[in-house]
Amino acid sequence: MGSERVEMRKRQMQVHQEAAASVLQARHRMGNTPTNASNACCFCWCCCCSCSCLTVRSEDETIQRSTFEHRAEETTNCEESLKPTLDDARSWPMSFEKVMKSAAGRGCFRQFLRTEFSEENMMFWLACEELKKETNKTVVEEKVRQIYEDFISILSPKEVSLDSRVREVINRNMLEPTSHTFDDAQQQIYTLMQRDSYPRFINSSEYADLLKSLEEPPPEP
What we know:
Blueprint: H1 2-29, H2 52-55, H3 59-81, H4 86-91, H5 96-100, H6 103-115, H7 119-133, H8 137-152, H9 164-173, H10 183-202, H11 205-215
Helix pairs in contact: 3-6, 3-8, 6-7, 7-8, 7-10
């Protein structure tokens, strides 16, 4: 089924490109070609086609994307390397909020999600948190596009599970991207992790082993 879906999307992309080319040729023959014809679909945020606005990026955008990815990787590595205190780890069963407000908690929970093949949920949530901190309009738009490609697009291997209502909200928001474009989606993924993965994490052997390691006295020097 996966390969059939990819092939279908490829055919759709080809049809879209051919149709766009026909329209531009017709306009040219009529002497009605717009000055921004090469950017005819630069608002194609859904990434359903391979138009020039998705394949040709300015040098500034490339640098911004690399910087964003580098910062995200640094944040991830930092959180995963943090070791919680015993009091911190003991507080996690009280609420999911306790886990998510702790950098060490997020790191440990993300490692658990990796074992359940659902790490993309935490990755998406963290990407949305980073997006909310951004104020530069150009950078916001680039981050929004990148998050869409990484976690919303049906072609992405890291696609998160969202219902049709939230996807419709995202598609509307993509017309005018802001730092809050994915707020509804972020909340839905947060609730999914809270109800589904969090109880298993608290009852897991990984969490029990972590507590045991923190309770053990340090070795004698």
